[in-house]
Each structure stands twice: as C-alpha cells, then as structure tokens.
Amino acid sequence: MKIINKFSDPPHFFLLVSILLFLASLPFGSLCIAGDCSGLYGWTVFFFGWMESYFIFDINLFGAISWFANPALIIAWLCISASHKKCAGIASGIAIVLCASLLLAENIVVSQDGIPSAITGYAPGYWLWFGSTIVAGISATIAAFSKKI
Length: 149
Known about the structure:
The protein is 57% helix and 14% strand. Strand 1 and strand 2 (36-41) form a beta hairpin. The protein contains seven helices and four strands, in the order ααββααααββα. By secondary structure, the chain is an alpha+beta fold. The chain has a four-stranded antiparallel sheet with strand order 2-1-4-3. Helix 5 (69-81) runs parallel beside helix 7 (124-145) and helix 6 runs antiparallel to helix 7. The protein has helices spanning 2-6, 10-25, 42-48, 61-65, 69-81, 85-101, 124-145, and strands spanning 29-33, 36-41, 107-109, 116-122. The protein is elongated.
C-alpha cells in the first residue's frame, strides 16, 4: 500500500511514466538506416550502443555520445526516487541533452565492420526513449518545486 501511495504524488507519478516509456521503447525500432526503420531495436541500442563511443572519430560526436543518456536517465530515476532534487535535475538535464544530440548525428555504426551508415530517420523507439527523458525532466522539475518530496 505504501508503494501505491508513493506514486500518487506528481514527481513519483511522472517517474513511473518515464520508466514505462523507456520500457515501451525497447521492442520498437529506434533509427532508420538506409530507409529501413525495423532493424535497429531499442533493446539492441540499449545493450550495445555504448560501443559507438569507440567510433567517435569515424562518426560525428553526437552519434557517439548519445547513448550515455541511458546512464544519466537511470541516475535521474534513482535521484528522483531518493528525493535528491539537485541530482535529479542535473541528471535528467544531461539525459535530455544527450538524447537530443542524436538528432544532430548524420551517421552511426550498426555492424561489426565498423563502417558508418547514414541515419535516414527516427523510429518510434527513439521517440519513446526521448519522451522518457523529457518526462524524467518534468518529474525532476516538479520535485524541485515540491515541498512534499
């Protein structure tokens, strides 16, 4: 009963929505490569996207750093849950900026050969992931102005 009551206040409600959006993003395609939006699932990007940082000199900076929105988002969730307002605000802000940076990326490495492929669009998985970071930011903002949390 205590857990249900905890999610009744706005910061924790939006925290739950953020987590659900993130989980919803995992089974969907995330990026369109050469016009194909079905091959790069969110779960694949979540587990292997950190490897993009190895190709920072082959692709642009934005494609290489965007995956790091994931740990920032998880830190934001933990900070919101633990009522650390400043930490939640900083971590969610970083998550939003890093997630949005993927919109500036022109190409990304998606295969073992290390050859960059052009990003031709963004699939629902990316938008759900981006929405998750935005909602975490909303949660952190509400928490910052809430005396209750």
